[in-house]
Structure formats: structure tokens, C-alpha cells
Amino acid sequence: MYDFNEWVSSIGIVYFILAIIIAYFLGNISPATLISKAANIDIRKKGSGNPGTTNVLRVMGPKAAALTLVIDILKGVVAVLIGRYIGGETLAVICGLAVFIGHIWPIIYKFKGGKGIATGFGALLALNYVFALICLAIAAIGFVASKRASVGSLLSALSIPILANYFMPNYIGLLTVMTVIIFIKHRSNIKRLIKGEEPKVSFKKKEETNES
Fold first, then answer.
1. pLDDT digits (tens, 9 = 90+) for 31-47
2. Does the pLDDT at position 83 exceed 50?
3. Would you say residue 38 lies in a domain?
4. Last residue of some domain: 110, 127, 144?
5. What is the model's pTM?
6. 89-94 long-range contacts, Cβ below 8 Å, gap at least 24?
């Protein structure tokens, strides 16, 4: 039977805690905020106010958005690799969740971060790339069908525990936490979807919308 306490003791409690702290603060790095500041723009006061890829795309254009996306994904990848190196697969999953939480609730930005989609994808990519790519495909289908980023994000998030049951059954509980958090962060989007008021994504002009 799996003994969590024995596992923690085997890698050392200090290393266990250190890995999680590093992962969390990796998540605190906000490329959207840093890139926009370099251009004398505060992305948190423009567009939707969300420091994420879609808002950067609308406010600053595709190059800045692409850089934001890549860095956010890499944060998730690096955090998982650190966890795996220090304590194996269990710590890798925990660090993936920690970097995801660090992105959404960053202490250095007064716990006001993004919605975690790109960073969560990066974590899943490092944990199991097939799992991650299926989630990406589901998100893409949802987005293309609805023209709403939130729909793609929510459908992908909903698929996480289902896919985890097949690809990573030992960690379905931890990965389900990610789904719950994504739904919490998208509660305003969900309300607008129910009311039929959620705007479609447009790349032709800036919009004051709350993206995923």
C-alpha cells in the first residue's frame, strides 16, 4: 500500500517543501505583466485586465502574446521537471499543481494572477504529453465550434479527471483539483455563457472582455 509519509521521508521533508516553494514562485512569474511593462503598458489595466495570453494578444498583438504563451507553458514544464528530479512522479504532480496555483494566486501580485490555462497545460505536457495533447485538442474543438476561448478552456478542464483516470489514475485526485480551480476562475465566464452574453474572441480589434 502506498505510504505518503514514508515517501516524503525518503526524499527528505526539506527537499519536498523546497521543490513546492520553487514551483509556486515559478508560477508567480507573470510574462504578460513583465512584457507589457517593457512597452510602458499595464496589462492589468487594459482590455479584460487579465494578465493572460488572450488579453496580451488583443492589447499588444501576436508577437507579445506568443512570447507570453511560451513562457507560461515553460513555467509548468520546468516546475514538473524539478519535482520529478527531486522526488519522482508524485512530487512532479504536486509541483505541477503548485506552479498552476502560483500563476493564479501569485503572492508577489497580491494573489491576482491569470487563469492558469497555459501554465496548467505546460505542467500536463511534462507529466504526460499524450494526456496534454488530447486536452489541447478538446480545447481547440471547443474554441473553433464556439469562437469563445472560455468554452475551449472549460471543456478541456472538464476532460482532465476523465483522462487522468486512464493516463494517470494514481493522481486523479490532485489533477481534479486543477479542474475545480479552473471552473472557479471561470465562474464569471460561466455566468455569461448561461445568459448568452459571453463575447466571441476577435483578433481584429481590442475588446473589453474577460478572456480565459
1. 999 999 999 999 999 98
2. yes
3. yes
4. 127
5. 0.88
6. 89/127, 89/171, 90/4, 90/7, 90/171, 91/11, 91/16, 91/19, 91/20, 92/126, 92/127, 93/127, 93/168, 93/171, 93/174, 93/175, 94/19, 94/20, 94/23, 94/174
